[in-house]
Write a structure and sequence with these properties.
By secondary structure, this protein is α/β, with parallel strands linked by helices. It has 17 helices and 17 strands. The longest helix is centred in the N-terminal third of the chain and has 22 residues. It starts with 19 loop residues before the first strand and ends with a helix. The relative contact order is 0.18.
Amino acid sequence: KCGTGNLKRPGSRAACGMSNFDTIIIGAGHNGLAAATRLAQTGQKVLVLEQGATAGGAIAQSELEPGVFAPRYAHLLMGLGMPEIKTLGLQDHGYTPAVSDMPTIALCPTGRHVVLQGGTVHYADGTPHPDAAAYQTLTKRLTKFAAGIAQISRQAPPALTGGGWRQAVDLGKIGLNMRLQGKDDLREFMRVALSNVYDTVLDEIADGPLAGVLGFDAILGGHMGPRAPGTMLSLLTRMREGAQRSLPKGGMGALAASFTNAAIAAGVEIRCNSTVFEISVTEDRVTGVVLQDGSSLTCGQVLSSLDPKTTMRLSHIRHYDAEMVRRVRHIRTKGAVAKVNLALSEAPKISGLDDSLSAARWVMAPSMDALELGYNGAKYGRLPDDVIFEAVVPSLSDPSITTGNRHVLSAIVQYVPYGLQQGWDSNSNSDLGDRVIAALDKVAPGLADSVTAREVISPQDIEVETGAPGGHWHHGELIADQMLMMRPAPGMERYALPVSGLYLCGASAHPGGDVTALPGLNAANAVLAGLKRKAA
């Protein structure tokens, strides 16, 4: 919809030539749209500016060939909670949640695949898995810890300094809830939270595809191995909503449309093909934005879905002290993930897997050691010899995504270095695509022959398309020292930047990446709280 032109409220002042807004939001990804909807619900006049042709950002879709649509980046829901769905009214605007949690297939090169479904674990041939009981015990405990993190995720993190009595009360509530878990659980949480996923998981289950899935979930999207300190906290954040993964009806493109429609229904104006050239600042306060075409728009505050480095550059570095600039420059943003989309003439079939499990999440992470080995290659700028990936075939869950009985496969490939030794070019993309297809063909024979179109998006491509530095999906490493009150950096952990009226609302802000809408909603609430304090 957005690509057909500007979307305006009927009869709005913007349509009559005036350009003043209460709030301007840069970026029409799901976080930007969530923030816009929340602010518009309170009566604010909100404008969203998107440099691309369509709204949706990471959850938008692209057409591989006529009638075959693939999720451009994100291809599964994990972490979008019911409170956020209700607040935004997504179900009233086209979002239909999946009926059940999507099973996960831990692929094994030898064909001894492991099925994780509804909290149970067994081999694909139906035989019991020797670590099933230990896995269930471990994940039950981790899910309990993750529920405590969910509470912290739905509010601004505590400030490192100051904060007043309100933050003291919030901290007290968090501490009390953790204490009520019991002395033993609290001690275990403190032991686990800052440890690495490699040691924590392998202390309880043997290394192999089952352990590999947990390790993969901890490092997905990051430039880190499972032995990195703090990777357990990364895993816990992904278990906030019970670690459930699902595909909404109509695919991720339908979810993007629901975010867009909810924003428009709330009164938000969305302008696509609108690139922000500068954030206007007068006397250390935001006054509006200047677009690439030279036009100016005025507003009371600006929310940026962009990363902090880009946001500070747009608002001019001179408005920030040297220490703040130094902290932002040291945010780790080296991407290590690529995306491969395939159009298929027929449905892929994994050897040894029942057809009823074909519409599942496939994870190729044979072991923790395989993950660590893959990370070693990425550190030195090499493409992975044995690709590690997560793949789904959304057309098996919802045939309406494609036409003519064709299918689409979406794969997120881990440990693909941003800084490739020989540099990124069309040959590098082709080489990576060949490796992914070959790996898929080993577990799903005949898949390679059914590929009719493909799309390979490298970390370099992600940086160009989205502006994310280093092509990092989360706009910054999602690990302990860049999370909670340390995200994205001290001094901007509560969404507001030192320039008055300027806020972060994207993946770089607490609680970080993935499709949760929490950074956007939390940032909007921070704006509303600030306006309330000024009015008091």
